[in-house]
Amino acid sequence: MQDNYRLNKLSKRLRSEVGKAIADFNMIEEGDKIMVCLSGGKDSYALLDILRSLQKYAPVNFELLAVNLDQQQPGFPKDVLPNYLESIGVPYRIVNEDTYSIVKRVIDEGKTTCSLCSRLRRGILYRIAQEEKCTKIALGHHRDDMVETLFLNMFFAGKMKSMPPKLVSDNQLHTVIRPLAYCREKDIAKYAKLKEFPIIPCNLCGSQPNLQRAAVKQLLQSWDKQFPGRIETIFRAMQDVSRSHLLDRSLYDFMSISSLNQKEFNPHHQAEATPINLLASKEKATKIIETKVVASKEQESNLNSQNSYEFSEQELDQLANDELFGGQDYDALARQLQEAHQEEDETKITGLSIKQL
């Protein structure tokens, strides 16, 4: 009874997270035929199960095709997946390709096989998707996979890069989606245990003790124990990127950022700078100030003899960008204007600070 309650509660949360990810990234559309890549691990089982559940209530119609790639690993239980898929009534296809022998022949013993294995597997799955006329390819990567990949790329590849929730292949023929993008691995593990999925371990790569991903996973798990919520914070950061506050010149046009005042007042910035008409600038600023003083006096009420008028941000922008007052922040500009006119009309001019920008 307790297990049923936990399963129902967990199912609702996972369905909600998957549904939100699908909506946020427009993963599934009307008439899609989705190839669900089923490896026999907890993540792909959970992905297929949740998509089947959402299929019943989704506002759009879509088909599911479960596809398993049998890579001819020694001891692989060939009957487990077909028996399971037939028992739940899901269309499926088992693809037999001996990538195991290729990987073992090319990669030296003791070295990581994941890179080559994943590339071979990806090419085969793309081919099967095309043969089956599938419009989307669904993979079982979850939130923790994405965070781990971010750190793997930073630590070992020098790139700020992770797994995207939606991706178009290099040849533009296939769209890859990751509906579990918002789901935590520990929730999926609990879900798989409660659902009693027939898990098949990966003897080709999962048993390798020197995987960099395993080291990063261990690091993140230790952070999560010591600082609860840290992984959630990192994942939120991946969704809130400030391109102007990083260093990638291909994503942000740093070259076009140039101060108008630097161009005019720095003799080394440009050799033939246009002469500055300071007199005209002064007259322009004076007219703006006088207009404000007159308006302030006309609106004078029962206050003290000292009037108070606050310049709008647009008006201060006009003054700050003028040649006469260029390069000063709003506070400095306000003080300068106040000192210049305090003796004449005792008008107090205030400004907005932009020091924090």
Automatic annotation (TrEMBL):
Cofactor note: Binds 1 [4Fe-4S] cluster per subunit. The cluster is chelated by three Cys residues, the fourth Fe has a free coordination site that may bind a sulfur atom transferred from the persulfide of IscS.
Location of the motif PP-loop motif: 39-44
Protein name: tRNA-cytidine(32) 2-sulfurtransferase
Cellular compartment(s): Cytoplasm
Reaction(s) catalysed by this chain's protein: cytidine(32) in tRNA + S-sulfanyl-L-cysteinyl-[cysteine desulfurase] + AH2 + ATP = 2-thiocytidine(32) in tRNA + L-cysteinyl-[cysteine desulfurase] + A + AMP + diphosphate + H(+)
Function as written in the Swiss-Prot or TrEMBL entry: Catalyzes the ATP-dependent 2-thiolation of cytidine in position 32 of tRNA, to form 2-thiocytidine (s(2)C32). The sulfur atoms are provided by the cysteine/cysteine desulfurase (IscS) system.
Pathway(s) it belongs to: tRNA modification
Main location: cytoplasm
GO biological process, one term: tRNA thio-modification
UniProt-listed Gene3D superfamilies: HUPs
UniProt cofactor(s): [4Fe-4S] cluster; Mg(2+)
Organism: Psittacicella gerlachiana
Domain tRNA(Ile)-lysidine/2-thiocytidine synthase N-terminal, chain residue ranges per copy: 33-197
UniProtKB keywords: 4Fe-4S, ATP-binding, Cytoplasm, Iron, Iron-sulfur, Magnesium, Metal-binding, Nucleotide-binding, RNA-binding, Transferase, tRNA processing, tRNA-binding
Annotated GO CC locations: cytoplasm
Group of enzyme by EC: transferase
InterPro entries to which the protein is assigned, alphabetical: Rossmann-like_a/b/a_fold, TilS/TtcA_N, tRNA_Cyd_32_2_STrfase
Name of the gene: ttcA
PANTHER family with a match to the protein in the record: AMINOTRAN_5 DOMAIN-CONTAINING PROTEIN, SULFURTRANSFERASE-RELATED
Family according to the record: Belongs to the TtcA family.
